[in-house]
Amino acid sequence: GHRVGRRSGRAAAAGAPGDIMSDDEAADPRLGLTVRHQRYVPYSHAHYGGNLVDGAYVLGLFGDVATEASIRADGDEGLFAAYSDIQFRAPVLAGDVIEVTATITRVGRRSRELRFDATVLCRAEPDRGPSAARVLAEPVIAVTATGTVVAPPAP
């Protein structure tokens, strides 16, 4: 599923508490734009023992939400230019249901900085049965990152 929303409040949209924003940034309606995708992680993506999925799988999903955020913000898919921080905090396993979010935290002339999160919502329980799974009482943040997308020059 896909969901789109906007965060409220200048500090929440700006990133770290205490960030100072210019009047242009504060007025930009693209700030705080959040795109969410939820996805089942198929067993065909298990790459390591214990059904562990490699980190590149989640980075591909970050690219997907960045593309939708760019389309919504700028009417163009944009070009993913760089990651400035990636942290693998917990495993992503085949059989998980994960939610991946991208939030625009800074809008430059052509660059857009985004914050990414991948959160495990459901997890398979193969010890209970071949198709057993549960909704996690506390979702687990598995991967976080920040990145930059570049919009094309205005015509």
Distance between the termini: 33 Å
Average pLDDT across residues?
A: 87
Helix content: 10-25%
Question: What class do helices, strands and sheet pairing give?
Answer: alpha+beta
Radius of gyration: 17 Å
SSE topology string: EHHEEEHEEEE
Q: Could you give the topology of this structure?
A:
Layout: E1 2-6, H1 10-14, H2 23-27, E2 33-40, E3 46-48, E4 52-53, H3 55-74, E5 79-88, E6 97-107, E7 111-124, E8 133-150
Antiparallel strand pairs: 1-2, 2-6, 3-4, 5-8, 6-7, 7-8
Keywords, separated by commas or semicolons:
155 residues; alpha+beta; six-stranded antiparallel β-sheet; two-stranded antiparallel ribbon; 3 helices; 19% helix; elongated
What does this structure look like?
The chain is α+β, with helices and mostly antiparallel strands. The two termini are about 35 Å apart. The strands form two sheets. It has a six-stranded antiparallel beta sheet with strand order 1-2-6-7-8-5, with helices on one face. The chain has three helices and eight strands, in the order βααβββαββββ. It has helices at about 10-15, 25, 55-75; strands at about 1-5, 35-40, 45-50, 50-55, 80-90, 95-105, 110-125, 135-150. The radius of gyration is 17 Å and the shape is elongated. Helix content is about 20%, strand content about 45%.
Quick structural gist:
By secondary structure, this protein is of the alpha+beta class.
